[in-house]
């Protein structure tokens, strides 16, 4: 603890344990990723484009080695699967559920149970992020985004709007 200029007493004043410190770091990283995803998604005017852009932004943020290590590799190991899932749910699955619910409400995605769909998509993106962490392929992020877009298109009930011509 001396490496960061904090005494053991000061550390334990703020955190009960190293696990509590890790939880605080994880929460901060999850919030940073959620903010990046929301900013990218909110920049799109169309709800469908918001979903796709948000999913792509998650993959891009998850391509950061520090994010991968802390959020996807260490967190389940340190905190346990159930707590990691609960934190992941609070940080990102809720937003994905809201986006999917809205898309169903406006008829872009067929009405269906949203909870399993959100978990399937979240799980697929988490697995893709873990794969991205392990692959040396420099084109992997771009090809993964294309594959994710293709997968998302399968849920769409309405075709994309034709581009307007001048």
Automatic annotation (TrEMBL):
<dbReference type="InterPro" id="IPR009057">
    <property type="entry name" value="Homeodomain-like_sf"/>
</dbReference>
<keyword id="KW-0238">DNA-binding</keyword>
<protein>
    <submittedName>
        <fullName>AcrR family transcriptional regulator</fullName>
    </submittedName>
</protein>
<dbReference type="InterPro" id="IPR050109">
    <property type="entry name" value="HTH-type_TetR-like_transc_reg"/>
</dbReference>
<keyword id="KW-0804">Transcription</keyword>
<dbReference type="InterPro" id="IPR049484">
    <property type="entry name" value="Rv0078-like_C"/>
</dbReference>
<dbReference type="Pfam" id="PF00440">
    <property type="entry name" value="TetR_N"/>
</dbReference>
<dbReference type="GO" id="GO:0000976">
    <property type="term" value="F:transcription cis-regulatory region binding"/>
</dbReference>
<feature type="domain" description="HTH tetR-type">
    <location>
        <begin position="1"/>
        <end position="33"/>
    </location>
</feature>
<dbReference type="InterPro" id="IPR001647">
    <property type="entry name" value="HTH_TetR"/>
</dbReference>
<dbReference type="Pfam" id="PF21351">
    <property type="entry name" value="TetR_C_41"/>
</dbReference>
<dbReference type="GO" id="GO:0003700">
    <property type="term" value="F:DNA-binding transcription factor activity"/>
</dbReference>
<keyword id="KW-0805">Transcription regulation</keyword>
């Amino acid at each position: 603890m001396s490496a960061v200029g904090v005494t053991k007493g000061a550390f334990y004043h703020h955190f009960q344990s190293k696990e509590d410190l890790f939880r605080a770091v994880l929460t901060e990283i999850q919030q940073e990723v959620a903010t990046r995803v929301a900013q990218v998604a909110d920049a799109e005017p169309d709800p469908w484009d918001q979903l796709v852009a948000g999913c792509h932004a998650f993959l891009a943020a998850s391509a950061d080695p520090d994010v991968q290590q802390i959020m996807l590799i260490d967190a389940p190991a340190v905190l346990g699967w159930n707590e990691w899932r609960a934190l992941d749910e609070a940080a990102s699955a809720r937003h994905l559920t809201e986006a999917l619910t809205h898309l169903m409400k406006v008829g872009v995605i067929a009405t269906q149970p949203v909870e399993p769909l959100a978990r399937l998509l979240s799980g697929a993106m988490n697995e893709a992020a873990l794969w991205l962490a392990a692959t040396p392929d420099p084109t992997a992020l771009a090809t993964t985004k294309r594959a994710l877009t293709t997968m998302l298109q399968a849920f769409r009930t309405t075709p994309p709007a034709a581009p307007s011509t001048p």
